[in-house]
Amino acid sequence: LREALVPQKKLKRDLSKRLLERLRIEGLYDSSRLRDKNDVFYQKRVEFAMHVLCYYQCFKCLKPYFGGLQQCNVEERANREFKRDELVCGSCADDTTCPEHGSDYIQFKCRYCCKPAVWFCWGTTHFCDSCHTVLPRPLPQCTGPDDCPL
Predict the structure, then answer these.
(1) Which of 17, 19, 11, 94 is nearest to 57 (CA)?
(2) Are the CB atoms for 113 and 119 separated by under 8 Å?
(3) Residue 61, C-beta contacts closer than 8 angstroms, at least 6 positions apart
(4) Active site includes 72?
(5) Is 121 annotated in the active site?
(6) Which residue, among 112, 106, 103, has the nearest Cα to 143 in the 3D structure?
(7) Which residue of the set 54, 121, 128, 131 is catalytic?
(8) What's the pTM value of the predicted model, to 2 decimals?
């Protein structure tokens, strides 16, 4: 049984590390919720990160990758079915790498609205959860730098 759990424990360690790093990036590492003794997340940084961050498991490499904040994705993902093979991390979706950070932190923007992409479909197109949800209806288009979320 121990041997069978080795991959899951490795995944959990990797995800915990990524969650804490992403909390720093998002400016949430020292959230007041972690210091409030009355809060359910008091001194529970990893649990808090799991509550506020949205991670997916890449279909190709099986590593977790960041897909935005939970508050942006909860309603859109509720009771939705999707194709697991469309969940592909930036490393597997493209051969691009950063000379300083490698490929672990590559994040693509949605082809249509410029929000962070979590879906990679047809081997060519990155989608955020919102735009992926409305397929095949007409999708929004980025209106330019003044309104772009990135």
Answers:
(1) 11
(2) no
(3) 89, 91, 92
(4) yes
(5) yes
(6) 112
(7) 121
(8) 0.65
